Automatic annotation (TrEMBL):
Protein name (record): PKD/Chitinase domain-containing protein
UniProt-listed InterPro entries: Ig-like_fold, PKD/Chitinase_dom, PKD_dom_sf
Residue ranges of every copy of the PKD/Chitinase domain listed in the record: 172-255, 1669-1762
Organism the protein comes from: Paenibacillus glycanilyticus
SMART domains in the cross-refs: PKD
Chain spans, region Disordered: 149-169
Biased composition (Pro residues): 160-169
Length: 1896
């Protein structure tokens, strides 16, 4: 951690402390002098005054200048300037090298001409001294002094008599050194030009005294100075009365250059220096003599101050050791002079941490931006690189921050402020840490902030959410009650869960209650051909007109249907060991029961009471056992029937309709060998359990015999008819017919040979006597046969047979032939089948022969099977009509319907062998329902057909027929077909055909209390479609007064229609709530709840806000939510339950309302709406509220006492209030800022609320007895007792509406007449109280069966004035008085009248109202609009009834002209019309619908800013255009109106326009020019206020040709030359490229304002830039190491721009140096000069910039190496001796002594080669050293590349054997020294060769 310690000092020293390596250190530094150097000047002029002597006046001016506050700066020299005030006599010189104070003398002259024409003249001398520092900076000061010249006599003469003596000549002191600056060894003259004195004296500086020991001389010429310094000589001259002084200064300069080391004064240890050390501020005093500093020879060194040893060079970065260091440098001038060492002290200091402090506001509030201030600095000037701010938050507000963690809220670059916005209250602490770029950090002290909480603000408004009863057509009263009579008169009865209407005949009223009648179920168990009218094929019922097929359905596999339909469209099927009850319409299972009671028995048949019979008898048994079970599987009867003979099987079994007798036929075998067979017919009494008769045929031989197609029928009188066919091996094919008297058992039968045949049922006429005692019937049946011949071929035939049967005797005979026992027959059809179908037909195709029909008149009808013919016969089977093509009865059964039309069913199947499927089908064909078509449908048949596809198939389709299975026509007109069981896939199919309406024409009246019905839907659902409620409860009492008590009753709610509702059904033991959707019931909830007969139960069904509830006995049994239906009707229902009584039917309407906000009022107990505003500036949540209530219970009438809430305070607002009265409610609230201690309460706010009760409507409408021809009047007012319980004597409004019971729509208002006797008139009323709250609708009803005779006539109204028609209305100047005539035939007075005044064009009412009294006029004052046709109509009232509408009259009011603005008609102030014309032409259009001429136009113009009326023409102008006077700048609006001489029309709309005549300001374009582009920047739009705004901005630019003309150029790079282009208004810069360099252009940017003013502008002319050129050269060439290379710059710019020159020189080793210059034209050749000592290829890059473009040139400078090669040679003689010696030794010249082997004592011949550069660089000398011997070689040529010399001393003889080294050194004139060594070998001595003779 860094900490700063403060210290005080009373000296001019500064002290600093810092922490360093574990200790605190203090450093002291002398306080630096002021950092701003100041020059102080003084001057004097000699003379300062002088008398003019008619000649030029010489003046000497002395300038003295001194320097202060230079700090560490070093003075280089001074530059002084002097001149006259007018700029003449300008003189400058450079003096004072290194001095802080100088004196300089200037010589001036005042020309005599200055005194021409004046008595005196004063000249001002201006002098200036500028000090130049070595770092390139300067400081200067100017000063002035004067000289005044006066002409003689200009002074006023002395008035005395004594003459004035002539003035003494002036004394002048004038001395100077000439020259005043010299170099040591030079001479200077101390000159003296003083004058007018009588004595003088010199004062010399000490150093000058050494040069001039004699101070008595007048002047001192040619003084020689050998010491540098500043010399001064001062002279004083006087003439006794006047004394003058003058000083001469001489600076003697040391010619040595001055080394000035410049660099940083301080550096942090180990850091880079802030700037480099250099000697470039060094200078030479001889610079004005052309001497320069040669920086290439600089010498540098440095050391720590206290150290003694230096280090060469300068440090490149701060040393690591703290302390002061001396950096020293030495320079040389161009003449080789060497400077002293220049010294610069810098200090290495430790890196100190920064100082940081943090400040935060003591208190602040959330969501306001607060600022954290960070004051940090680096003691040693480092960059503050990063900062971290930390916060810790006292979360629990306990004041203990130490438990809280520090959290960083900012970490990043340093900044001195950091904004924070608080979202929570509480106290926080902060600290900041700052890091320098070199890593040291510091942490601040801790600052604290307390974030406070603002108090919240609350306000509220209070209203009631008043439940207003809906007044629409779907609205209803709160309470409704219905009598049974009213329900039957006004409700709708439908078949439940369908849209089919039901007949109301199943219901009746009973003392105000509504109940169902007794119901007798129609018999669906209908046999054939006795369908209730006898065995005659006549049906009691018609096929339903709306018969429709339902989907075919199939029984489970192998199940067999009981082929009868029971009431309610049910059937039974035997399915294994169970019998199943199903819906015949869709197969839905209804119940099932076990057949265990009849297990093992064979099914025989069923009866109409839904009992089922099973039998069992074994072969040879004497009895046949029959058992009877009911539809619950319970055994209810067992019967033993004796059998005659050996029974084979039962052919026929049937139960009589009354269930008392069983009919049975069976085949028996007889004879000893069972060789015979017979057929028995038996009638068995169930009651007596005895056989009534048992008859049989004669025994017929068995060979064997197959019985087939047997059919039986019981006639209405109990007679039995049987038919069957047989096939025997002996007798072939036969058909049999048997008839048995049901009472006596007499029987007759007959047979007839036939082909393989099908035989129909037998039909019979009614009994007749033929005039005898015997009773007779005629029997008919048809036979269809198929014959296949052995010889091939086959035929088909159909024959009709008839028997005459004697019921008394049983005999069968031919018709009308008693004694012939064969039947009468008639062949109906015959054909050879192979001619038609050939082998495709077989005997199975005969199945389905039609049964004859007997008409009521005895006519017998038959039809063929295949040939499409029909026959009519009399009872004797004589044809009574010709054979006709007609309808085929394609199956066994045929029905003659009550309409006389015939219907017949079919069934069968079509097999598809290929696809292995078959299609069972069934249909019923009904004659007379379709158009006659060309296919023999003479009756116009319709075939109701359906089929189904099965996935299996059987042998042939015909085999699948069983014609007996189809039902007869059922009571409701329905019909069912069945497929044959057990075939194909094993599925028996059911084909339902039912009425679309459901029940046909049922129910039917039996008597007043009984109806016949066909199903359970006969009673149905009563509901009121006109009343649709949303939240309601239906309640009634219900009792089932039927002991069976077996059908559901209940109610429905939210009925949409017959198929969509909620329905509650209550059966005998279960209550179920259903949702019915699209006719399908879905149980929502079900409970077991038994219902007892003859007990009355309260029943309630409720729907409220999506919840459904059912109550019985006031106990809630069902509750469930469902929102499928949210509104609808309600009703009561009975699903077939007879004797169900519904009484006291009521409806409670909960929610048919809309919510209306009633300000400051609410109903008792209803919801209060509080619109609360909790406003917390910091968005704190609301923590708590306090609500206070004060109650005034006596504010309203009928007080209910004091509220339970009076005077109490609650934490929550009360949703409702319990008592009426005036309440004062107060609220205050507290916020939750997050800490308890900071919570705050708002100020309380109080509001009033009126709590009142709903008004009550009590309508009572009665007949008046006044009867008009149209109806009887009703009295609404007399008996009405509606009231408001709070303000009893006031109701604000009433509403009535009415509807007839058979209507669903309400008619608003009162219906004055009851006009429909026998129909209820339903009347509802609402009343409104003073708070605007409506009562509930309350309903009353009026009803009369018949109206009394008319006793009153209607009055009449005829409007007399105005009397205009539609085509020609009355034209009026003002609203009229309407007048009419009243008349009444009964002379009854007018009681009130009604008028309606409306516009014709749209029917809008102007006035409509009813007014009391007998007035026959009415003043209109309704503000009727002029020019529109008005329609007037009315009626009058008298004696309870209104007249018819009166005649209609029309009028129209005169219309003043209408004025519209045509010009300057801006629609609003923000969208005016702009103009730059301050006298706009205003235009209007005037229209007059009455076509009257315009007489005057009034123009009004307003200045918008102050609504000042600027123009008002009043009535002075009649034209529709007008030019205004000059208007002010800015926004105006105007309007106009016109007069048609009758009235002024209204003012036109306002038109807005803006006058702006001042052009926008210039855009002040600024250019950035480049060689081929220009960028223009310009100001945003500017315009003097008021301004119309910025409309557009355009850019203009063209090329300017030499002749001044212009040429368009491409301004937007689209390839097209433009004169100008548009710019977006927001554009403030634009660049045009593609310009030509050095070409002249012009441009401008211009704005237009919206008013059309073009802005101020001026073209700017400019030329594009041409790039500079860059080149350079150098010398010498070539360059050798050590050469000082001078680079010369050849840079130029065609535009004469200032150039920035930069040289970048890179040495072969990568060291780079940069040189920079600034050139002005004319451009110099200056370039860098430096000594290149490194050999190799240097790179010089020259960059030249004119400020816009930079060009570069790079060249390679190769620095060659200088060389030296030394040679040591023998003299010629010694070399010869060496060779001789070698030859002697080896025979070779160079061995064994090589050339480098010398004898001691030899002379050494020395030679050297140095580099021949070809330049000025040459070797100056070459020296050779060998041991302590040396020699200088002599150049042998002018290039000084060859050198010669020798070396010998007598001591050489003493050299010992061994190597001898010669060192050659070459000194080049560029300072390079090269060395080379040559080693020779000393072997032997010269004495060895020559003896005592020495040879050198």
């Amino acid at each position: 951690m860094t900490k700063q310690y403060t210290m005080e000092t009373k000296l001019d020293w500064s002290a600093e402390t810092y922490y360093y390596e574990g200790e605190v250190r203090v450093t002291y530094e002398p306080v630096a002098a002021p950092t701003t150097p100041t020059v102080s000047c003084d001057c004097s002029a000699e003379p300062d005054t002088i008398i003019f002597t008619d000649k030029d006046v010489p003046v000497t001016a002395m300038l003295t200048a001194s320097l202060s506050g230079k700090g560490t700066k070093t003075v280089k020299n001074w530059t002084v300037y002097g001149r006259a005030d007018d700029g003449s006599q300008y003189t400058t010189s450079t003096v004072g090298y290194g001095l802080d104070k100088i004196e300089q003398k200037f010589s001036f002259t005042i020309p005599r001409a200055k005194l021409n024409g004046v008595d005196s003249y004063t000249e001002t001398w201006v002098m200036r001294a500028r000090v130049n520092f070595t770092d390139g900076t300067t400081a200067e000061q100017s000063i002035e002094c004067t000289t005044t010249v006066t002409k003689p006599g200009a002074a006023t003469p002395d008035p005395g008599g004594t003459p004035t003596p002539p003035p003494a000549p002036p004394v002048t002191a004038d001395v100077e050194f000439i020259p005043n600056t010299i170099i040591t060894g030079d001479q200077s003259t101390l000159d003296n030009n003083s004058d007018g004195y009588t004595s003088m004296s010199w004062t010399f500086s000490n150093n000058l005294q050494e040069v001039i020991p004699d101070d008595s001389q007048y002047r001192y010429p040619n003084l020689k100075f050998d010491k540098p310094g500043f010399y001064q000589a001062k002279i004083m001259v006087t003439n006794g009365s006047e004394t003058r002084w003058d000083t001469a200064s001489l600076q003697v300069l040391d010619p040595k250059p001055v080394a000035v080391v410049t660099g940083p004064a301080k550096v942090i240890q180990g850091r880079d220096f802030s700037n480099i050390f250099h000697l470039y501020n060094s200078y030479t005093p001889l610079s004005e003599r052309g001497v320069t500093v040669d920086f290439t020879k600089n010498q540098t060194r440095y050391k720590k101050v206290e150290d003694s040893e230096y280090t060469n060079g300068w440090p490149s970065k701060g040393p690591t050791t703290l302390g002061q260091y001396s950096v020293e440098g030495k320079v040389f001038d161009s003449q080789g002079r060497e400077s002293d060492w220049g010294t610069h002290i810098f200090e290495v200091v430790p890196d100190q941490p920064p100082i940081v402090s943090i400040m935060t506001p003591e208190q602040t509030y959330r969501f306001n931006e607060s600022m954290i201030y960070i004051d940090a600095a680096s003691v040693d000037g480092d960059v503050l690189a990063s900062m971290k701010i930390e916060e810790r938050y006292d979360h629990d507000n306990d004041g203990n921050y130490e438990e809280e963690p520090w959290t960083t809220i900012y970490e990043g670059p340093f900044k001195d402020t950091y904004p924070v916005t608080y979202t929570t209250v509480g106290k926080r602490q902060y600290r900041a840490s700052v890091a320098e770029d070199y890593g040291l950090t510091a942490i601040s002290e801790i600052a604290a902030t307390n974030v406070l909480n603002y108090s919240p603000f609350v306000n509220f408004d209070v209203s009631g959410l008043t439940q207003q009863p809906d007044q629409g057509d779907d609205s209803a009263p709160e309470d409704l009650a219905y009598s049974g009579e009213s329900i039957m008169r006004s409700w709708k009865l439908i078949q439940p869960y369908t849209t089919n209407a039901n007949k109301s005949i199943g219901w009746k009223t009973n003392n105000g209650a509504l109940q169902t009648k007794n119901a007798k179920m129609a018999d669906f168990f209908i046999k054939y051909p006795n369908m209730g009218l006898g065995a005659n094929s006549r049906s009691k019922y018609e096929v339903a007109a709306d018969l429709t097929k339902l989907p075919v359905w199939g029984l489970p596999k192998n199940a067999v249907a009981v082929p009868y339909i029971y009431a309610g469209h049910r059937l039974y099927s035997c399915e294994g060991a169970e019998m199943v009850e199903r819906s015949a319409k869709n197969g839905t299972e209804l119940s099932r029961f076990s057949l265990s009671a009849v297990s093992g028995l064979t099914y025989l048949g069923a009866d109409k009471n839904e009992n089922f019979y099973y039998g069992a008898g074994s072969y040879g048994a004497t009895n046949y056992e029959v058992k009877n079970i009911n539809n619950h599987g319970e055994l209810i009867g067992s019967y033993t029937i004796p059998i005659s003979g050996e029974m084979s099987y039962i052919m026929y079994f049937e139960v009589s309709d009354d269930g008392q007798n069983l009919y049975m036929a069976y085949r028996a075998r007889t004879g000893a060998s069972q060789e015979y067979w017979n057929v028995h017919a038996v009638k068995y009494s169930v009651q007596d359990k005895s056989v009534k008769w048992d008859v049989k045929t004669q025994d017929i031989r068995y060979s064997p015999t197959f019985l087939q197609n047997y059919k039986g029928v019981i006639d209405s009188d109990g007679d039995l008819y049987l038919t069957w066919a047989t096939q025997t091996t002996y007798d072939g094919y036969e058909v049999y017919a048997m008839a048995v008297n049901g009472d006596t058992g007499v029987m007759g039968y007959g047979s007839r040979g036939a082909s393989n045949s099908d035989i129909s049922y037998m039909t019979a006429t009614t009994e007749y006597t033929r005039g005898r005692t015997d009773k007779w019937k005629t029997l008919y049946f048809n036979v269809s046969g198929y014959v296949q011949y052995y010889s091939g071929g086959s035929n088909m035939n159909t024959t009709m047979y008839g028997y005459q049967w004697n019921r008394t005797t049983g005999a069968l005979s031919k018709i009308f032939y008693d004694n012939i026992n064969e039947p009468t027959q008639y062949g109906l059809e015959y054909w050879e089948t192979c001619k038609t179908w050939c082998d495709t037909m077989s005997w199975e195709d005969t199945y389905g022969v039609g049964t004859p029909i007997i008409y009521p008149d005895g006519t017998v009808y038959a039809t063929t099977r295949y040939q499409g013919a029909e026959y009519y016969f009399d009872q004797y089977l004589q044809q009574i009509k010709p054979k006709a093509s007609g309808n085929l009865i394609a199956n066994t059964k045929a029905f003659l319907m009550p309409s006389g039309n015939i219907a017949y069913p079919t069934n069968g199947a079509f097999a598809d062998y290929t696809n292995a499927i078959y299609k069972p089908y069934a249909s019923i064909v009904v004659n007379g329902r379709g158009p006659i078509d060309p296919y023999n449908n003479t009756k116009g048949s319709i075939n109701y057909y359906n089929e189904v596809t099965d996935t299996s198939y059987t042998w042939t389709s015909s085999f699948l027929k069983d014609p007996t299975l189809n039902t007869s026509i059922l009571p409701d007109g329905s019909f069912y077909g069945f497929s044959a069981p057990g075939t194909a896939s094993g599925i028996q199919y059911v084909f339902p055909f039912v009425p679309a309406s459901g029940s046909g024409d049922y129910p039917k009246v039996i008597d007043a209390n009984t109806v016949e019905v066909v199903d359970a839907t006969w009673a149905g659902l009563w509901y009121d479609p006109a009343t649709k409620l949303k939240n309601d409860r239906l309640s009634f009492n219900v009792a089932v007064n039927d002991a069976a008590n077996d059908k559901p009753i209940g109610a429905a709610i939210h009925i949409q229609d017959g198929k969509n509702m909620y329905a509650a059904e209550w059966s005998k033991d279960k209550l179920t709530l259903f949702k019915v959707a699209a006719g399908t019931k879905t149980a929502l909830q079900s409970v077991d709840y038994p219902r007892s007969p003859f007990v009355t139960y309260p029943f309630e069904l409720e729907a409220s806000n999506g919840t459904l509830r059912v109550y019985i006995n006031h106990a809630k049994l069902i509750e469930i939510s469902d929102t499928t239906y949210r509104q609808g009707s309600l009703g009561i229902l009975s699903l077939g339950q007879q004797q169900a009584k519904f009484s006291d039917v009521k409806v409670k309407n909960y929610g048919d309302y809309y919510v209306e906000e009633t300000h400051q009022s609410v109903l008792v107990g209803e919801e209060i709406k509080y619109e609360t505003i909790f406003d917390d500036i910091e968005k704190d949540p609301e923590l708590a509220e306090e609500w206070s209530y004060l109650h005034d219970p006596n504010y309203f009438a009928n007080s209910l006492g004091e509220s339970a809430f009076d005077g109490k305070t609650f934490e929550v607002k009360l949703p409702s209030l319990d008592k009426p009265g005036l309440y004062h409610i107060a609220l205050k609230a507290k916020d939750s800022p997050g800490m308890d201690e900071y919570e705050a309460w708002s100020e309380p706010v109080t509001k009033e609320l009126y709590v009142h009760r709903r008004p009550i409507a009590r309508p009572d409408v009665q007949f008046t007895g006044i009867v008009y021809p149209e109806g009887e009047t009703l009295d609404y007012a007399t008996f009405d007792t509606s009231y408001d319980p709070d303000i009893p004597d006031y109701l604000a409004d009433r509403k009535f509406r009415t509807r007839w019971a058979d209507e669903t729509a309400w008619t608003a208002g009162k219906r004055e007449l009851y006009t429909r006797p026998g129909v209820e008139l339903i009347i509802q009323e609402q009343v409104q109280d003073g708070f605007g709250v409506w009562s509930y609708w309350v309903e009353t009803r009026v009803y009369k069966e018949a109206l009394p005779a008319a006793n009153q006539h209607r009055p009449q109204m005829i409007i007399a004035y105005p009397g205009g028609t539609l085509a020609s209305p009355t034209l009026l100047g003002g609203e009229p008085v309407l007048r009419w005539t009243y008349s009444d035939a009964d002379r009854d007075p007018q009681e009130k009248f009604y008028l309606k005044v409306s516009y014709v064009d749209n029917g809008a009412a102007i006035m409509e109202g009813t007014f009391p009294g007998n007035d026959t006029s009415f003043i209109l004052d309704e503000g009727i609009k002029q020019g529109r046709k008005v329609k007037v109509q009315g009626r009058v009232y008298s004696k309870g009834y209104w007249s018819d509408d009166s005649n209609i009259v029309y009028f129209i009011l005169n219309t003043p002209p209408v004025t519209h603005l045509l010009s300057f008609n801006g629609a609003k102030a923000s969208e005016p019309i702009y103009t730059n014309n301050n006298r706009p032409l205003l235009k209007v259009s005037v229209t007059d619908v009455d076509n009257q001429p315009v007489s005057r136009v009034d123009y009004e113009v307003f200045y918008n800013a102050g609504s000042e009326l600027a123009v008002d023409t009043n009535s002075a102008v009649s034209a529709t255009s007008y030019t205004t006077p000059a208007l002010r700048e800015g926004l105006h609006n105007w309007r106009a109106r016109a007069s048609d001489s009758f009235a002024w029309g209204g003012y036109s709309e306002n038109g807005y326009f803006f006058v702006d005549t001042v052009p926008p300001n210039d855009t002040n374009e600024q250019l950035e020019i480049k060689p081929t582009s220009v960028k223009v920047t310009f100001n945003p739009f500017s315009d003097a206020a008021p301004s119309s705004g910025h409309a557009s901005r355009a850019f203009y630019m063209q090329k300017v040709n030499e002749d001044g003309s212009t040429t368009n150029i491409d301004l937007n790079n689209n390839g097209t030359a433009e004169y100008s282009i548009s710019l977006s208004n927001a554009t403030t810069s634009y660049t045009v490229g593609g310009l030509l360099a050095g070409v002249k252009y012009r441009l401008m940017v211009v704005d237009w304002d919206v008013a059309g003013n073009m802005g101020q502008y001026e073209y700017i002319y400019f030329s594009t830039n041409r790039p500079p050129t860059a080149d350079f050269d150098w010398s010498p060439k070539p360059v050798y190491e050590g050469d000082t290379v001078v680079f010369t710059t050849a840079a130029s710019d065609p535009d004469n721009n200032d150039l920035a020159i930069t040289y970048k020189l890179t040495s072969p080793t990568g060291v780079t140096r940069t040189f920079a210059y600034s050139f002005k034209t004319p451009y110099p050749l200056t370039g860098p000069s430096l000594r290149m000592t490194e050999t190799g290829e240097w790179t010089m890059l020259l960059s030249v910039s004119d400020g816009m473009e930079t060009v570069q040139t790079e060249k390679k400078v190769k620095v060659l190496a200088l060389g030296l090669t030394g040679y040591v040679k023998h003299t010629e003689q010694w070399d010869e001796k060496r060779k001789e010696f070698n030859k002697k030794q080896s025979g070779k010249e160079d061995s064994p002594r090589g050339y480098n082997v010398f004898w001691a004592g030899e002379k050494f011949l020395l030679s050297a080669l140095t580099t021949n550069t070809g330049t000025a660089t040459k070797a100056d000398r070459v020296e050779v050293a060998m041991k302590s011997y040396s020699a200088s070689l002599t150049s042998s040529n002018s290039s000084r590349s060859g050198w010669q010399g020798e070396l010998w001393e007598k001591t050489f003889n003493d050299f010992k054997k061994g190597p001898l080294i010669f060192e050659f050194t070459a000194y080049y004139n560029n300072g390079i020294v090269k060395r080379d060594t040559v080693t020779v070998q000393i072997e032997g001595n010269v004495y060895d060769i020559v003896g005592v003779h020495r040879v050198k």
